[in-house]
């Protein structure tokens, strides 16, 4: 499972890098179209080459379908139907050019519509976040949040939409906007190290932020939050089990019954004594 998640993170990072590259260099689209055109010219002179290109397209599309649906039967059906269509058609140069042309146009349109939809969704999220700071000028706040959302993180594993979701989460908690960039970096670190989803990473970050800033009345420090997270990483427990224990026991820190470090030390001791997650919660809460 962790290997699969690591691969997904690497793949996501690659997609984000490519997306940022094309977003900042619009001329690359023209280069891509020209490369496609050269590929068509290279293969369209031979019927065998035309069939090879069509089969390659069907294979790539089927791989994409499988990556999205995770359904082998659905992917196999679409793949076989695609191949059947290719080999049952008497292809010639004209048919090939028309097919490739419409396929390229279709992908350009789909990509454009998808980009517009994601941009609109991102805009709605940032507007919602900016409205959480009524004491600040809306236009300036919105512009600042948009700038933060477009800043790439260290490992580039968070997309623009992910960063905007982080901004919305932080704004609902009324965290100072000046802390947003550092906060997003910590959230990304938690997500990568714990191999968890963005929601869990944001919730854990806010818990650490609350213990350090709201309860202990310290100034926000990214380094300090990371040090607190390091204590969690060093626990002899899986991330999923930790979330289960922590979510049930963090109220003890909020109510002042335990210090953060003391609770983690206690959890570690109970783990090493051989107790499981539910037993640890029961023991500590029963005191």
What does this structure look like?
By secondary structure, the protein is an all-alpha fold. The chain folds into 2 domains: 2-122, no CATH class; 139-285, no CATH class. It is built from 13 helices and no strands. The protein has helices at 2-24, 27-43, 47-69, 72-88, 93-130, 138-149, 160-172, 180-194, 198-215, 222-233, 239-254, 260-272, 277-285. The longest helix is centred in the middle third of the chain and has 38 residues, at 93-130. The radius of gyration is 25 Å and the shape is elongated. The relative contact order is 0.06. The model is unreliable at 1-7 (pLDDT under 50).
Terminal CA distance reads: 36 Å
Large-scale geometry: elongated
Count of discrete domains? 2
Strand content: under 5%
Main beta sheet: none
**Helix content range:** over 70%
Features:
single chain; 287 residues; mainly alpha; 2 domains; disordered N terminus
In short:
The chain has 2 domains: 121 residues, no CATH class; 147 residues, no CATH class. Helices cover 79% and strands 0% of the residues.
SSE inventory with pairings:
Layout (H helix, E strand, L loop, with lengths): L1 H23 L2 H17 L3 H23 L2 H17 L4 H38 L7 H12 L10 H13 L7 H15 L3 H18 L6 H12 L5 H16 L5 H13 L4 H9 L2
Helix pairs in contact: 3-4, 5-6, 5-7, 6-7, 7-8, 8-9, 8-10, 9-10, 9-11, 11-13
């Amino acid at each position: 499972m962790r290997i699969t998640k690591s691969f997904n993170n690497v793949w996501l990072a690659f997609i984000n890098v490519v997306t940022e590259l094309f977003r900042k260099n619009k001329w690359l689209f023209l280069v891509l179209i020209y490369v496609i055109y050269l590929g068509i010219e290279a293969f369209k002179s031979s019927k065998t080459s035309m069939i090879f290109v069509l089969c390659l397209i069907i294979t790539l599309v089927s791989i994409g379908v499988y990556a999205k649906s995770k359904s082998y039967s659905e992917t196999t059906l679409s793949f076989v139907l695609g191949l059947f269509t290719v080999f049952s058609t008497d292809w010639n140069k004209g048919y090939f050019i028309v097919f490739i042309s419409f396929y390229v146009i279709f992908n350009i349109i789909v990509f454009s519509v998808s980009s517009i939809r994601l941009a609109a969704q991102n805009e709605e999220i940032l507007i919602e976040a900016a409205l959480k700071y009524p004491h600040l000028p809306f236009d300036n706040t919105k512009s600042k949040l948009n700038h933060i959302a477009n800043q790439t993180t260290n490992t580039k594993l968070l997309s623009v939409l992910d960063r905007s979701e982080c901004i919305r989460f932080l704004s609902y908690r009324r965290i100072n906007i000046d802390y947003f960039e550092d906060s997003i970096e910590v959230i990304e670190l938690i997500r990568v190290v714990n191999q968890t989803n963005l929601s869990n990473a944001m919730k854990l970050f806010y818990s650490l932020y609350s213990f350090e800033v709201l309860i202990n009345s310290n100034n926000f420090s990214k380094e300090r939050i990371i040090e607190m997270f390091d204590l969690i990483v060093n626990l002899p427990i899986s991330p999923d089990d930790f979330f289960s224990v922590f979510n049930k026991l963090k109220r003890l820190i909020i109510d002042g019954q335990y210090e953060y470090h003391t609770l983690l030390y206690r959890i570690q001791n109970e783990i090493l004594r051989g107790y499981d997650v539910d037993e640890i919660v029961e023991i500590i809460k029963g005191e």
